[in-house]
Amino acid sequence: MPQQPLAQVPADVRWNWQDFGACRDSDQALFFHPQNERGSARVKRDRAAKRVCANCMVRLECADYAVRAREPYGVWGGLSEEDREQIYARLDVRTYPRRQGEGARAAAREIADAVSAQALGIA
Ligand code: SF4
Predict the structure, then answer these.
(1) Whose CA is nearest to atom 6 of ligand 1?
(2) Which of 33, 42, 70, 76 qualifies as a cystine partner to 66, CB 3.0-4.6 A?
(3) Residue 36 belongs to domain spanning
């Protein structure tokens, strides 16, 4: 995944997990919505990206990074922008997870749900 310029990249970030991402050879347009994409087109694209993430061996590392960095755009670790917004809304900004592993701990339920049958549209 490309690093997003607006993300608040944590000081302890490591990128080596990206070498093992299932999206490595995918079209990155699947993971980032084009301008003005709305409705069913956006739902379909997000689900297709989540399906790739569901089979990714570094999904937890990816989701952990995205939550900690507050990645503003894209599907990371199966989490869409809306999924992450729900996580951010729930977290206390005074104790916001910044260290490695804290994002995965703080949002374990959302990270698991992100690639559920319902999220993938196969429920
Ligand atoms: S979890 Fe998804 S976005 Fe992250 S590296 Fe894997 S396939 Fe790519």
Answers:
(1) 21
(2) 76
(3) 28-114
